[in-house]
TrEMBL record:
The gene is Pnliprp1. InterPro entries: AB_hydrolase_fold, Lipase, PLAT/LH2_dom, PLAT/LH2_dom_sf, TAG_lipase. Its EC number is 3.1.1.26. Residues 167-256 form the PLAT domain. It catalyses: 1,2-dioctanoyl-3-O-[alpha-D-galactosyl-(1->6)-beta-D-galactosyl]-sn-glycerol + H2O = octanoyl-3-O-[alpha-D-galactosyl-(1->6)-beta-D-galactosyl]-sn-glycerol + octanoate + H(+); long chain 1,2-diacyl-3-O-beta-D-galactosyl-sn-glycerol + H2O = long chain acyl-3-O-beta-D-galactosyl-sn-glycerol + a fatty acid + H(+); di-(9Z)-octadecenoylglycerol + H2O = (9Z-octadecenoyl)-glycerol + (9Z)-octadecenoate + H(+); (9Z-octadecenoyl)-glycerol + H2O = glycerol + (9Z)-octadecenoate + H(+). It is found in: Cell projection, Neuron projection; Secreted; Zymogen granule membrane. Gene3D superfamilies: alpha/beta hydrolase, PLAT/LH2 domain. GO terms for cellular component: extracellular space; neuron projection; zymogen granule membrane. GO terms for molecular function: galactolipase activity; lipoprotein lipase activity. Its main location: other. Pathway: Glycerolipid metabolism; triacylglycerol degradation; Glycolipid metabolism. GO terms for biological process: lipid catabolic process. This is Pancreatic lipase-related protein 2. It comes from Sagittarius serpentarius (Secretary bird). Belongs to the AB hydrolase superfamily. Lipase family.
Amino acid sequence: LSGLDPAQPYFQGTPTEVRLDKSDAEFVDIIHTDSAPTIPYLGFGMSTAIGHLDFYPNGGEQMPGCGKNPVSQIVDLDGIWEGTRDFVACNHLRSYKYYSDSIIYPDGFLGYSCASYDVFKTESCFPCPREGCPNMGHFADKFKGKIKNNFLKLYLNTGEAKDFALWRYKVTVTLSGKSKVKGYVNIALYGSGGNTRQYQVIEGTLKPANTYISFIDAEVNVGTVTKVKFLWNNNQLNPTFPKLGAAAITVQSGEN
């Protein structure tokens, strides 16, 4: 039984008899997309973990792409009716859009077991444990026999628009050069499954011999990495023409 952002008002904190609960089926998975408090944030969805697996994409409260201005949201590619609904309840409705996308991407939407969304952004919950990570949505039940905890809270990021599936990579960059400079470093991944766009992994003071760690939520499953493109820019004219390179780049897939 899959709960798509189960309702918060009149249901959250009530006895299990009157709301969705893990006791309602052999396997219950939940997608929380609008779990901010109803007052004052008008969150329609429940925030508490109530299933065998509880997924909190993007933290479960504010979904990427739902902060568009009203005109662009209502005059949507999917039509006025879809756009108007998204303007009124965009976060709430993301749950079924993620679910429908999960049918198309059986290897996508990996949820990482974590104490909170803030902890998910650090290295603490990466990569997946030995038993793997469950997939949010249609294929969540593949994880059915592997649940050890009473409630499993899972976090992941999604795209702003269709297609919503993203694949998480940890990128570790050791810089080389002669002097420190200010600027940013971009990385693009190339692999057997496809290539990513450029992602900014470092910004600020760039020091040679220093190692920097960042996460990329890529729009494709790169597969086996065959090449990494490294690009840096100091964002300003510098008469000394400083040079900066990568002594080493390590890419780790969250899945394996």
